[in-house]
Amino acid sequence: MSIFESYQSDSSFDEIYDADGNIKEYWKEILQSVESAGDALLKSKQEDIEWHIESNGVTFNSYESSKKSTNRYWSMDPIPFVIQEEEWDELTLGLQQRAKLLNLILKDLYSERKLIKENIIPAEVVFGHKGYAKEVYNLGSLENFSLQFYATDIARGPDGRFWVISDKTQAPSGLGYAIENRLTMNAISKEIYPDIQIKKLYPFIEDYKNQLKKLSGDDLSKAAILTPGVHNQTYFEHAYLSAHLQVNLVQGADLLSKNGSLWLKSLSGLKEINTLIRRVDDRYCDPLELKSSSQLGVAGAVDALRQGNLNMLNPIGSAILENAGLNPFMEKIAEYFLQEKLILPQIATWWCGQPKELAFVLENIQKFIIKKIDRTEKVEIYFVSKLSAEELESLKASLQNAPHQYVAQEEMHFSTVPYYKNELLEPRNAVIRTFSVKKDESYSVMKGGLVRVSASKDTLLLSSQQGGTSKDLWILSNQEEISYAYDFSIYSPYVETAIQNIPTLKAENLFWFGRYLARSIVTARLISHLIKRITNFYRYEIDTSKEAQEILQKALTHMTMTYPGFLGEINKETMERFPMTEIRSVIKDSNRVGSLSFTVSMLKNTHTNLKDLLTLESSKLFDRLDRNWQLFLGRKKESTLYIANDVEQFLIYIMAYKELVKESIFKEQGLTLYVIGYKIESALLLISVMRSVVCMKVDKYIEYDLLESLLKTQESFNAYRAYYKSSLTLENVLDFLVLHSQFPKSLSYMISELLAAFKELPKAKEYVTSYEKPMLEAQGLLKDVSMKTLLETQEEDGVYVDLDTLFGDLSALFLKCSDEFSHTYFSHYDE
Amino acid sequence: MIYTIYHKTSFKYQSMVSFSHNIARLQPQESRFQKLRQFSMEITPQPFESNDFKDVYGNDNKHILIREPHKELTVIGKSRVEIFPELIEENIVALQKNSISYKDALQRLTNFHVDDVEAKEFLFESELITKASKEIREYALESFQPTRDLYEAALEFMERIFKDFAFVSGFSDITTPIEEIFKAKKGVCQDFAQFAIAALRSIGLPAKYMSGYIETLPPEGEEKLFGVDASHAWFALYIPNAGWAEFDPTNNMVPREQHIKLGSGKDYYDISPLKGVVLSSGSSHLNVMVDVRREKEPKEFSMQSQSKESKEQVQNQF
Hints:
Chain A has 831 residues and is an alpha+beta fold. Chain A has 27 helices and 21 strands. In chain A, strand 18 and strand 19 (442-445) form a beta hairpin. With 318 residues, chain B is α+β, with helices and mostly antiparallel strands. Chain B contains seven helices and 14 strands. The interface between A and B is medium-sized, with 33 and 27 residues.
C-alpha cells in the first residue's frame, strides 16, 4: 500500500492498526478504496468538499483576533473515522448510562439534593461551581426539567477502549456540523467508497424532532432555537438546525414574557413559545433573575420555567454538569442511582477538595494535568510537565488557596487517525463528539458524530477555535442499509414563508434596512454632487454661483442633521473657503451621527442580521463594498478628486447591491417592510432637500443652478428632460418631484405606493389604521395643491411661505406614519 | 413586641417605560423568632400580573409585570412583625454553649456532616462579595486563632470592625469593592456586613448577608419623625454544631429585639428590595423611604380599667 508506506512509521498508536501493527480487518476496505482512488482523485474530492462547504456557507466564527470575530470556513478531509457496528452498540450502552446518570444528577441537585445530603458527592463540588444556578432551585422535580440533549467527547485510549473526555450539557454544539459533514461526504463517497454500507443519521434526527414535538405539545411552531445572534461562534449551526428541524430561529429580543409564558413577537402579533433549544449560556438567559447585564436573554424566562410553561433543551442550571469535579464520584453515583457499574471509563481524576487527595496531587504534581472544575467563566487547563518553575509555584498556590476548584487528571495518549491534506497522509489525534437525545426513560444515541482532528501532527489539544479540522464518523453496517424516503435534500433553509409569522426583530430590521439603504444612497448622491461642483467637474464657464453652492451645502447639513455643520456661525469664513474639511467629516467621521460612514455602519448591522434572507451574491457584493469603504475611510489626506472618485465607486456598488436586494427577498419574507422603510426615508430626504433648496426666493440664475442640482441629486434630471422637453422652471420641477402621478420618485407616487404596501401586511384593516391616516392626509394635501398658487403669493417675502409650510406638514406626516407604523408592528406592549 | 414597618421603594425613569419586569422583596421572612402578623404590598402603577414565589433561601419574592406607560414605579411594603425576645435570647445562649473552636470548625467543615451541607453554599464568593485578599484574610485571622471559640472570636471580630471602620454615608454604594472599603476603613452597614462576610469566607467559614430593619429612637423627649429610618444589614456566621449566629458590626451588637429580619442571601443582590428590567433609554433613579416603629405595648398589668381600653386599641389597628 504505497500511500500508507510512510504512514505506519509515523504513527505509534493508530486507529487502523491492531496491537501487532497489522491493519484491522474493518479498515481494509476503506484503506483499499483510498489507495485505489489515488492522489489525483483524493485531491479532487478534497476540492469538492471545500467547494460544498463554501457554497453552503458553512462557517465557524472564530474569536481569536480577540476583538473582531471573523467568519471562517469549516473544513473536513475525505477519509472518515470508522467504527464497527458491534463496538458502537457497546459504546451506546455506556453513553446512554452516562446520559441517564447526568440527568438524575441534574434533577436531584435542583430538588431534594440527596446526593449532597447523603454524602455521595461533596457539597463543594456543587456550590463551588459557577454553573450551579440557585434560581432554578426546586424545579428539578418538574418532569421536563431534564437533560434533553447531551454531547459527550470520547477518544480511544491505549487499552483499546473509548474513554470519556468531557461532557457538554448546557448548550451542546456540533450536531449541525455533523449533519453537514455527512451530507458533504455523501456527495463524494460514491466515487471513493462505492461499496461501503454505513449507518444513517436520520433516525436520530427523527428522535430529536419527536422529543421536540413531545415537549412542545405536538406543535413545533411553539418551539424555537434561541441564538445569541449572528456574531456567535456557531451561528451557522443555529440557522442550519432551524432549517433541519423546521423551527423558528429567535434572539432574546424577539421574545417577551407575560402570563408566565414566553411569546414570540411576530408581525401578526404574539405567538406562544413553550420550548426553547437554547444556545445562550445559562446565566445569560434572563436579565431579571440571572446576569442583569445580559442582552441575550428575555426577562421572565426563569419565571416561565418555574411556572411550568417553558421547556428548555437544556434547562437553565445544566452547566453544573460540565463539571470535572463530578468524575471521581461517578462510580458512586452510578451505584447510588442505578446499582450499576460505570460502563464507559473516565480519565482517572482526583478532586483536590479533600486533604488526602490534595496532598497526593501536590506530591506527584509533575505527572498530572490540572484543570479547573468549571468552565463557566474561563477554561483553565495546565499541563504541569510543561510549566516553568514559576508557573508551577503559582499553580500550587492556587491549588492550596481554593483546592475544591481543581482536579488533577492523568495525562493520557489517545489514538490517531489518517488525515489527508495537501497530498499527504498523516496520523492526527482525534476526538469524537457523540450526541444523545432523551427518548422516554432512556436516550437515543446518534449513529455517527462529529470528529475533530488536531491542528497539527504533534498537538494533542483539540479546539475548533484554534483552527482544527473535522472528519465524518462512519459506523459500518453489517447489512444493507435501507434508505427510507427520508431525504435531507427536501429541506431548504427554514425561513418564514408567511409574512404574518415573521419575527418582529427581523421585520424591524427589514424596515430599517430600507431606511438606511435609502439614506446611504441619497446622502452619497448629494455629497458626490457637491464635490463635483467644487472640483468644477461640470465645467461651467462662469464661476458657478457661490450662493447656490452654499445653499446646497446647507442642504447637506439639514438633510444629514449634522448640525451645526454649514449653518454654524463659528469658522464661517474658513467653511466657505474650504468646504471640503466639513464635507470630509460628513463622509468619514463615523462618530458623528448622520455622517455617511455612520449611516453605512448602521446599514451594515442590518445587512448582517438579514444575511439569511439575502442571496450569496448580495452578501459577497456587500463584503466587497464594505472592504473598499473601509479602505477609503482609512485613507488620510487624499485629494478632493480622489474622494470624488471613491464616493462615486461607493454609489456604483451600493446601487448594484440595492438591485440584488430587491431580487433576493420574497414579498412573503418581508420585502414589503423593506419597501416601506425605503419609501418613507426617500420621501423624508427629498422633502428635506427641497425645503432647503427651493423655498427661498433667489436670483433666476441661481435658481436655475439649484433646480439642476436638485434634479441631479435625485437622479431625475434626464427623466425631467424627457418629460418636459423644456428648460427648468421651478413650477415644473416641483410638479414633477411632488405631484407627478406617473414618476416613481415623486412624493405623490411614493404615497400611493406606501398605501398599497400597507395593505399587504397582516394588520391591514377594513378601516383606516393609525399609520395609514397620515398618508391619506398627505394625499389629500397634495390633491388640492397647485404649485402655481403656492409660488405666486407673498411677493414681498424672501421665502415661499406656503410652499415651506406644505413641506413642513408633509415631513411631519411622514414621520408620524413611521412612528405609528413602528408602534403598531414592532412594540407589542399593548397586546 | 410588635413593629410596624413601612418600606417604600421607587424607581424614577428619565423616559416613559411601557413594559417592565420587576422583583420585589419586601415581605419579612417568618421564623421561630419573628412572626408576620400582617403584610400588604401596594404597587403603582397597577401590575398587569404578579406571581409570588419563595427562593432557595426562603425569601418571599414577588414577580411583577407592569404594562402601563409610566415614569415612576413605586412599591410599598407595610408589615406588622412580632418579635419574640425570649426565644432569641434562648437561642443566643444555646449558640454560645454549642459553639466550637475555629480549628474544630474547620476540621468538621472539611469532612461530611449532614447538618453542615446547606451552609456550605455560603463558603463561596458571589457577584458582590468576591474572594478577599490576603490582607483581609490576615485581618480576620487576628480574631480567629485556631483554639479560640468561634462565637467569642466573632464577637471580637464584630467589635473590631465597629472600632476600625467609620460610618460614613455617601462614600460607597453597594457595588464598591470590599477591598476599597477595607482600605478606606469607612462605609455604611451594607459595606460592613459584606466586608465581614468576605473576611469570614476567606478563612473557610460560611457567612451570609442579613437584610432587615433596626429600631431607632429619637433624642430624649422628641417625637420620632415619619420615614427617617433606613434598611439595615448585618451578617450571620455558621458555627458547626451550633448553627447560624448573627452579628451587627455597624452597632457592635448581637441582634436581639431591635432587629427585624427581612431576608438573607449570599450578598445584597439576593435580597435587594426591588429590581427590574425595563426597555428604555436614559437612566433611572432609586428612591427609598423606611419607617420602623414599635407599637405601644398593651399595659395588661396596670389598672384593670385601662387594660380593656388598650386591647381595643390594638384591635383597631388591624
